[in-house]
Amino acid sequence: MRLAIYPGTFDPPTRGHLDILDRACKLFDRLIVAIAENPQKAPFFSAKERLNLLQALTREMEKVEVEILKGLVANYAQRKGAVAIIRGMRAVSDFEYEFQMALANRHLNPQVETVFLMPSENYTFLNSTLVKNIAELGGELNPFVPPLVAELIHKKLKGG
Fold first, then answer.
1. Torsion on CA atoms 85, 76, 6, 124, rounded to nearest 10
2. Digitized pLDDT (tens) for each residue of the chain, 160 residues in all
3. Cβ distance 8 to 94 under 8 Å?
């Protein structure tokens, strides 16, 4: 069984994230969405909230499970027996960072390959920061995130 890890902060999860996940499901037998906690990013949603969101969003995806990632992705992938780390590549601007991360992960765990997947053209501009900015300025979120995510973002912005 070929297992892949799809790590990220997913803060919030976007339609682009789900598009990459859908593409990865076609390539691997099993996927773990690994929610990273990055204190440098000042998360909008807690790791537990992101876990609950992604579990709800992937409920119908039989191959997918969602966990909170502790530690290095390369070590996590090794513990889980993964053959690949999935990374979304939206544009050339993502390349340098993703290339460095892939090389570091290869150095830490040479048995795991990094697989770059491009999202649908509809999502190449999309990232979580953009979604948060649109939300904070009162913009329409449904083109960018699933309705459940939009609802929770609006609720959180209203102090709920």
1. -70
2. 999 999 999 999 999 999 999 999 999 999 999 999 877 778 899 999 999 999 999 999 999 999 999 899 999 999 999 999 999 998 877 888 999 999 999 999 999 999 999 999 999 888 998 999 999 999 999 999 999 999 999 999 988 6
3. no
Contact 3, 82 (CB under 8 A): yes
d(CA 84, CA 25): 12
Alpha-carbon span 62 to 2, nearest angstrom: 14
3-state class (DSSP) for residue 138: coil
The domains located in the chain, with CATH, are 3-157 (3.40.50.620)
Do residues 87 and 98 make contact, with C-beta atoms less than 8 angstroms apart? yes
* Helix (H) / strand (E) containing 157: helix 147-157
Q: Which residues are catalytic?
A: 17, 41, 90, 128
DSSP character at residue 120: P
